[in-house]
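note to self — DONT lose this again. spent like an hour looking for the file last time. sequence + predicted structure for the chain T wanted, 114 res
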Amino acid sequence: MSHLRRIGVITGAALLLTATACSAGKTTVGSLSFRAQDGPVEVTYLNTAVQGCHTIGLPRGAAHVDNNTLVDVILYRTPKCQRTDAADGVYIPTSSSNVTAPGSLPWRSFSVVH
């Protein structure tokens, strides 16, 4: 194998590793707080991993959210970030809040937009 070809292979491998590790270990940087409809209990997530689906730790789900992170999130009315015809995801931009509409299903999980 020629010297230039080896350099090309090594460079390609390095770029591939960089691309696959792009979001590994990254977090939301900030807090994401959830509250139930009529309850005083609040659950706050700090510096949550940006990868995967995260279950909201309230037994009956959340009706209020405060996104004080540097990233946007999507809230789901299903436990595992599944979109359905009746329960599509709700986009919550960074540094904003939202509440569920009266009579609608609570939020059960969230994922991070990255």
